[in-house]
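Protein entry
_____________
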Amino acid sequence: MLQDKVGNIWFGTNGGVSCYNAAKTFANYTTKDGLMHNSVYAMVQDNNRNIWFGTQGGLSYYDGQPIIKFTKKGNLSFRGIRAMLKDKTGKIWIGDQYALCCFDPSKPTGKDTSIISTNSAMNIFEDKAGNLWLSSGEPNNPNMILYCYNHKTFTKIKSEKQIFGVIEDRTGNIWFGTE
């Protein structure tokens, strides 16, 4: 779920995305409206008030007009997006089953995407210091790895069967859930 800057509440479902608006009505969007896939797993709003939808089949965004499909450089598509984050600088981080990617929607070149890691990223969290915490899979490893990324290097924190979420408390402790 996501509450946007004007108070609308967005719900990602396996049947598309629904928006509950100020008029207390629902608007529903599916692949017929431009979504890359009807299974919506992650959402984020950028500084330009666009709503980004991470789906099983890729990335789409809504700018008040029809939903627009988004691809990486070379017209490559995202697959199995499970996590998205807008960081303190306004950059959008996307975790899919193949990579951790980042792009800056404010850049005039459009939507150039940088691949930060070729491991999957299933959860993304930014701490008060601006470090990113993510749970990731590695090829041929049945466990997930909790990493801290300081925008230069990845530090392996913990390996567990599943890592479901990460959060920081008021005193700066990092908490994460496992199976």
Q: What stands out?
A: The chain has a mean pLDDT of 88. The chain is about 0% helix and 50% strand. The first strand starts at residue 2 and ends at 3. The CA atoms of residues 131 and 150 lie 5 Å apart.
